[in-house]
């Protein structure tokens, strides 16, 4: 039997979600405690979130085009996950620190990372691309789950620095570890949950369950809803509709507040969908159905905020035009930036192998320089 | 200079204590390192004196220990992790090789990783499986890591102080069979060069024996035995496997014309292979014989009752010396 044609959305999976806005843009009254957490978000704030989500989607389109034009080697879209990412990022305090995996373009954008710098890695000119301390946003980590331990250790450092539970909202610090459904199978994620729990570390585990780990559905990773993983470690855990930016904002603000105030870690499962391919090298038509994609397209996180704004009088043509114009500007900047990115000098490979003088690297750097110089001499 | 006589294990303990005292960012992490003082008692008394947030009994998870140490280092701390035994480092192998070794490079030099990973290693103590291994070459093959191993109490003390001060991650292999060897230690001796340099442990003229860590002891014994037969052997204690102090080795071999490498790890793709390659490249016209190796075999570390047939012994070293001299 073709498992794809049998796709039916699992209503039970949706029952225990925190959702504040329906896919039609209507506010729900099912989670008043979370609704209270976003009550302060006025039209301007909602418009800001809408604009950020739209820009990140535009970034996806532009970056994918650049990859197709041969300007990038690879690109992983965040398409479909803008709701949770922008909602979560807008809940961060300046001093909070985020450890992304490699699809957190939305959070990067809100943290102030120049979007083109996210592409340095995918252009093959950098393994990183930005100053982590400037943005309190760590470099992308490609080994699945490794950085959840770094986040936990960083949070243990925050504790030792005395920056938890002081009551000073400009100092108390939370750390966020972003990872996906596939990563929850990794030992490092589970070890991070152990270390965070026993240390009561101020870290929020933000699991974006986008339903697919490349070609493997979440059923290949778990037989319980993923948020229940956290419970077994004694960590407060919640599942949120990741395509609802407001709910994501509310749930993350609660988790971040718990971390900053000394309440310890939280596990957040953001239930969302990877609307695009895993990367530009992937082909989802080999493993998932059109019906499933259609189901999720009806739950598009950006449409939902637009519908909410429309219902609440926050939408007008001028705003829509401004967002489109900002997207056009982003696209132009991005194309110009990326095309101007030159390959580093070959000898730069020796620059940061070690922080201290290293005899092996020094000898090889010298050999390489002489080898290169030999061609210049031969050409004379 | 005043010195105190102490064991190698105590010298490491004193180095950890001194580092904890002088730098508030230094912290120790590991399994059973607190109240117990570690299974070899190397951290004895440190939690009592420095508290549970600086000397941390970690969950029993090596990847977690190293992974959280990386995060702490990003936040400005200088974690010293204890891996309880050599054979238990592998759950942390991913964190060490894909993260710890590479984050400085990944960040284009913006982030440093001043993390020390202490690993009691080597055999000869009659242990069960996974408690006698020598995995240093696996780490020496990874750029971004320093890999060192002391053989005397003084070196253990000074090299540990310098390893903790290093901005780069250091795999610190402690020769567990020699933890109880005693020697004079000057607790004021710091010497950053020690992390980069071999020492000539015994001067000689007839052949150069190159070794490090736990094999240094048996190599020196072999040199003494050879002296009784009129052979004057030089012994170079590498102290650092990565980076190798090639210059000290080359200077010695150019004088003696002969080189035998001794270590407990398997000879196959071991540190001795790199030494042999460097020597053949840089001492070609000085060599009187091929470089020989006396090392473990390419087998899983054997059961305790036969481990001494696996480890380099005085007899096996002397056999190699005879072969190189007869060439």
CATH architecture of the largest domain in chain A: 3-Layer(aba) Sandwich
- List how many beta strands of chain A DSSP finds: 7
> How is the largest sheet of chain B built, in terms of strand order?
3-2-4-5-7-6-12
Note the gap between the termini of chain A.
70 Å
CATH-defined fold name of the largest domain in chain A? Rossmann fold
What's the level 1 CATH class of the largest domain in chain B? Alpha Beta
The succession of helices and strands of chain A, N to C, reads: HHHHEHHHHEHEEEHEHEHHHH
Form type of chain A: globular
Number of strands of chain B: 14
What is the radius of gyration of chain B computed over CA atoms, rounded to a whole number of angstroms? Answer: 19 Å
- How many individual domains of chain B? 2
Q: Hey, roughly how much beta strand do the residues of chain B contain? A: 15-25%
Radius of gyration of chain A: 22 Å
Helix count, DSSP H or I runs of 4 or more residues of chain B = 12
At the fourth level of CATH, the homologous superfamily of the largest domain in chain A is Thiamin diphosphate (ThDP)-binding fold, Pyr/PP domains
Query: What is the structural class of chain A?
Result: alpha/beta
């Amino acid at each position: 039997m073709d498992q794809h044609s049998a796709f039916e959305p699992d209503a039970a999976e949706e029952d225990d979600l925190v959702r504040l806005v329906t896919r039609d843009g209507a506010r729900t009254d099912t989670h008043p405690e979370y609704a209270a957490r976003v009550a302060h978000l006025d039209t301007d704030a909602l418009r800001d979130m809408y604009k950020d989500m739209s820009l990140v989607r535009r970034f996806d389109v532009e970056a994918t085009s650049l990859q197709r034009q041969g300007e990038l080697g690879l690109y992983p879209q965040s398409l479909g996950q803008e709701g949770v990412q922008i909602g979560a990022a807008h809940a961060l305090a300046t001093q909070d620190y985020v450890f992304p995996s490699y699809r957190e373009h939305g959070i990067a954008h809100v943290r102030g990372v120049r979007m083109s710098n996210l592409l340095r890695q995918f252009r093959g000119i950098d393994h990183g691309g930005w100053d982590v301390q400037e943005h309190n946003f760590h470099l992308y980590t490609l080994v699945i789950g490794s950085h959840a331990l770094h986040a936990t250790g960083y949070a243990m450092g925050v504790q030792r620095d005395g920056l938890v539970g002081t009551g000073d909202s400009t100092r108390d610090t939370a750390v966020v570890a972003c990872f996906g459904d596939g990563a929850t199978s990794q030992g490092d994620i589970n070890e991070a949950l152990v270390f965070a729990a026993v240390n009561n570390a101020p870290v929020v585990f933000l699991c974006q369950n986008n339903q697919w780990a490349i070609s493997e559905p979440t059923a290949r990773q778990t037989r319980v809803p993923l948020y229940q993983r956290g419970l077994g470690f004694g960590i407060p855990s919640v599942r949120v509709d990741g395509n609802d930016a407001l709910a994501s904002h509310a749930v993350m603000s609660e988790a971040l507040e718990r971390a900053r105030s000394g309440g310890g870690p939280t596990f957040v499962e953001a239930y969302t969908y990877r609307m695009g391919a895993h990367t530009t090298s992937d082909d989802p038509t080999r493993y998932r159905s059109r019906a499933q994609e259609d189901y999720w397209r009806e739950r598009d996180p950006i449409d939902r905020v637009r519908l909410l704004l429309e219902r609440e009088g926050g939408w007008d043509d001028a705003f829509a035009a401004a967002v489109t114009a900002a997207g056009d500007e982003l696209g132009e900047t991005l194309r110009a930036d990326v095309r101007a990115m030159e390959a580093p000098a070959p000898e730069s490979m020796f620059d940061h192998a070690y922080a201290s003088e290293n005899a092996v690297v020094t000898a090889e750097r010298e050999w390489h320089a002489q080898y290169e110089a030999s061609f210049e001499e031969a050409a004379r | 200079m005043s010195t105190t006589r102490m064991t190698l294990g105590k010298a490491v303990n004193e180095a950890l204590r001194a580092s904890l005292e002088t730098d508030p960012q230094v912290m120790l992490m590991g399994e059973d390192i607190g109240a117990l003082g570690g299974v070899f008692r190397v951290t004895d008394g440190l939690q009592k004196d420095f508290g549970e947030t600086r000397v941390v009994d970690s969950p029993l998870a090596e990847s977690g220990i190293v992974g959280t140490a990386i995060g702490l280092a990003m936040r400005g701390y200088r974690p010293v992790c204890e891996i309880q035994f050599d054979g238990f480092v592998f759950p942390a192998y991913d964190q060490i090789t894909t993260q710890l070794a590479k984050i400085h490079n990944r960040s284009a030099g913006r982030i440093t990783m001043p993390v020390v990973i202490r690993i009691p290693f080597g055999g000869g103590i009659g242990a069960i499986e996974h408690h006698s291994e020598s995995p240093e070459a696996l780490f020496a093959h990874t750029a971004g890591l320093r890999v060192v191993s002391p053989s005397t109490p003084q070196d253990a003390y000074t090299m540990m102080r310098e390893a903790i001060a290093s901005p780069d991650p250091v795999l610190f292999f402690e020769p567990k069979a020699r933890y109880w060897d005693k020697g004079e230690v000057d607790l004021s001796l710091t010497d950053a060069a020690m992390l980069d340099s071999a020492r000539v442990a015994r001067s000689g003229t007839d052949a150069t024996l190159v070794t490090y860590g736990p094999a240094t002891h048996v190599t020196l014994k072999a040199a003494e035995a050879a002296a009784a037969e009129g052979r004057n052997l030089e012994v170079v204690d590498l102290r650092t496997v990565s980076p190798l102090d090639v210059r000290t080795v080359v200077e010695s071999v150019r004088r003696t014309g002969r080189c035998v490498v001794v270590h407990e790890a398997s000879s196959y793709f071991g540190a001795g292979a790199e030494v042999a390659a460097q020597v053949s490249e840089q001492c070609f016209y000085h060599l009187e014989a091929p470089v020989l190796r006396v090392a473990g075999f390419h087998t899983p570390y054997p059961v305790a009752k036969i481990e001494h047939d696996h480890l380099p012994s005085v007899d096996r070293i002397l056999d190699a010396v005879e072969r190189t001299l007869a060439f």
